[in-house]
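Quick one:
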Amino acid sequence: MAGAVSPSDNEHQVFDRMSMLKAFDETKAGVKGLTDSGLLQIPKIFVRPPDELAEELTYKKTQLQVPVIDLSEIDDSDMRKKIVEEARIASETWGFFQVVNHGIPQTVLDGMIDGVRDFNEQNIEEKKKYYSRDNTKRVRFNSSYDLFTSRTASWRDSLTISFSGLDPIDEDELPPSCRESTLEYSKHVSILGNTLLELLSEALGLKPDRLNNILECSKGHHISSHYYPPCPEPQLTLGSTQHSDPGFLTILLQNEVNGLQVFYQDQWVDIEPSRGGLVINIADLLQLVSNGKFVSNKHRVMANIIGPRISVACFFSGPVREVKVYGPMKELISKENPAKYRDVILSDFMLKFLNAGFDENLGLDYYKL
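Output:
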């Protein structure tokens, strides 16, 4: 039939795409390497499928905004109750909220953003020393962790540093350009993570230490610093495809360039950057252990003609290097409200996420009873 695509043509298209992906990956220069070359059109591996681009036209701009929670009076017993209630409502509905007056100095936040910029904008040969797709490495730089499994490559480069594990990370493993700023930010964000998990434990009607000490949700964390270069054709691609996070809780720092969106009430809602503010989102495992009381919502990052957009995500995923089983907490299960999810082995759960593309991940659907 005229115009028909033969199996060999399909195989060639797949092969051609794989060749392009490998060629891009082997440069070890990331997306910034493409923009530095002065390209005016994005490579085909970054172009979203036609069905996605068509669906995009059905979404309307909305004025909705995620809740903002002020933590300045968290030590006051009456104000703490108010903060806990605000966190409960946001976690049950949006799965997202912003926090202000959280205790991390602005100098530490600015230093972290500057460190990420310095790493990405330094000599390419220095960055290449850290380029890897080996997820067991505690420090690794690459472009799209799911480059070879997703439908579309994402317009971003990432530096991931793991602070999980029984042994502390060797500071000399961190790139000199962002070593000091990352270590300082890690100390502060770890404290904030513990505080937030205490609030969320109270929001579930449990003792403050239930998520932290007993479930060990905050035991270890890793930081992924994302650099989104300006894109010549932002309408055709994404900085990060839609996904939910696999751990318990994520704390996100972002610079002044917007792009983050959360899917709420069947629309994509912009989460505008707020100087000094941090974006908090419930992740899949917290939805699981709360038996669906808290929601882990889909989110994405739009590409932008201006940039760079810089963001720093701190993921609290529990003791990922230990054998640990998680399921809905017994206190939240009853005859009237039975368990909605089956138990999971933490390491298997995280591995399943890493082996699938962002756009292929089913989140918790796979674990529903």
